[in-house]
Amino acid sequence: MENFIWKKLSEEEKQEIKKQAEKILEKFSKALKKVKTEEYKHFENKSGFREETKTSETNKEFQDIFFQNAPKKNKNYIIGEKKSW
What is the pLDDT along the chain (85 residues), one digit of tens a residue? Predict the structure, then answer.
């Protein structure tokens, strides 16, 4: 952030940026409408844990990267907040 340069914007520049942002959002909204989705049923699990019924082999490289990005972890588990938002 040391090399970040601030520039005061005129009202015209602010309005132009606003118009550009609105165009981007409009294009994005139209693109999202084209995405095909499937409906799914959501089952709430009040215990906070899920039962593993079928396991698959772990991709070790993916797991290593995944755990490197986790701010809190304990062995092979990621510690996350529950409903704090």
Answer: 566 678 888 999 999 999 999 999 999 999 988 887 777 666 666 776 767 777 777 788 888 888 888 888 887 788 887 776 6
Residues 6+ apart with CB under 8 A from 9: 17
Q: Cβ(17)–Cβ(9) under 8 Å?
A: yes
**Exposed, middle or buried by CB within 10 Å (0-12, 13-18, 19+), for 38?**
exposed
Cα maximum dimension of the chain: 60
What predicted TM-score, i.e. pTM, was given to this entire model?
0.38
H or E element that contains 77: strand 77-78
CB 25 within 8 A of CB 17: no
